[in-house]
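[step 3/7] fold_predict: job queued, chain A
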Amino acid sequence: MIVVKVGGGTSLNIDAVVADLVALRASGTELLLVHGGAQTTNAVADALGHPAQFVTSETGHVSRRTDRRTLEIFEMVYCGQLNKMWVEKLQTSGINAVGLSGLDGRIFEGTRKDTLRIRVDGRRMVLRDDWTGTVERVNLELLNLLIGAGYFPVLTPPGSSTAGEAINVDGDRAAAMVAGAVKADALVILTDQVGLLRTFPDESTLISEIPKGQADRFMEFAEGRMKKKVMGAVEAINEGVGKVIFADGRTTEPITKALAGSGTHIS
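[step 4/7] structure written:
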């Protein structure tokens, strides 16, 4: 089983990803897809007069501030526009896709962080009315039911809290938990760069190999969203996934090329 996580960058070659999924499935490769959509969500939030806000936690990680209105916009874009775009493209390519959020059937479940400790100008603050969480459990029974019946799951945040509330969860870390749950041979994370770069944005500084036990030591080279991707990679390896690959989602045959050696391999 190969779990593919496609980010939300607008420069990604979506049609090439779909064509590669079709070709790989035809060759007998088992696949599962998780997608994001942060850039589109930001644009829609701006258009609706509720622009995205980002906060820095006490540990230095930057994340989206998710109040209830932001969560509603998040659901509109991820569960509606983008998820159904993927399903339509896959269906017209001959794959019987089923689009589900992590909230459906509690596919992604975790504890809601209803308060968030952050730093603003060096001062500690506590944000309330926050709807975020971390995936702690994956509903493998439901995924196996769908896969066993011949359907192709297309998964996206949000997830479910233990109380059944919708929560914003990080897509890369959710994909890592899915990959661990299905005992994936590989987790392929497609991004808008060639892989993890030693000197961002110089693509000639690609880090092609990272020893499995040293993945967290390479966090210093991760810029912006890549920090969460490296964090997800570490979690996937800890969950028993065979390898994690950061690869270029802008090219043709992006998954096939990643499995053949392109990108950054953690194994």
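[step 5/7] annotate
The helical segments are 14-26, 38-47, 68-92, 140-148, 171-181, 226-238, 254-260.
Residues 17 and 151 are 18 Å apart (CA to CA).
exit 0
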